[in-house]
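Notes from the 1:1 (GR / supervisor)

We went over the backlog. Supervisor wanted to see one worked example end to end before approving the batch request, so GR pasted a single chain during the call. The sequence is below; no edits were made to it. Supervisor asked that the structure be written out right there so they could see what the output format looks like.
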Amino acid sequence: MRDNALQFTMREMRRVAASPLPWAALAGAALVLGMVGPFGTYESLRLPARLAYWAAIVVSTYFLGFAFVSLLEKVIFAKRPGPAGFALIGAMAGVPVALFVWLLNRLVYGTDVVFLLPLTLYVMTIAAVSSGVIAFFSARLAHAPAPAQPSAQRPKLFERLQPRLRGKLLYLSMQDHYVEVVTDKGSELILMRMSDAVDETAPVDGLQIHRSYWVASDAVTGTIRRDGRLILRMSDGAELPVSRNRIGLVKDAGLA
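Structure output shown during the call:
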């Protein structure tokens, strides 16, 4: 279960890092904070150093907090928690984030700008509130009526997914007794057999490349060879192995 949580966290990190929207928001926040110079940074740092400081703070704490929240979500909860659950794991994620900020301040200033305990309580509160609020509005959006689509163009498998995840189908991965359905909007574990999940991928063109993996053809971006094995590289950065008895099928499908 821990390996699955780590894989989920890394995949979510790659997905967020590949999107331009978070980077644009982070750049805007870093620019505003660098210009305004809160918490005494306006007086203590020149503009270039201040911009660099806040860029480091904003980007590092965002991705560090996101990673810990994603990891704790999978480790603690069997299914996606509500706003209260996200507030709890947000507060927990605030501890390593606060420690990072404290260490960075020690590196930049050579002393405690804010003592570790009050800084930790401050960051935990912000992380808990922001995580809970984001989860609340995400849940509202997830239950909002989705735009009507012809059922013939949407895989039946999508009826099992949260509406917010019904994007472009990338691949399926068998995880114990669950099938992980991965789209360009995220992933979700569904309790079902792999064969039944594959049957519900139509009309998406794809191929089962391994007893534990099915891929959408247009989500394959390349191939690599590693230790004599053929591996498909997916559009989200994942690398999926092809079983030896299916290499011919993969080549016939034009995927290798």
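Supervisor's comment: The longest strand covers residues 169-175.
Batch request approved.
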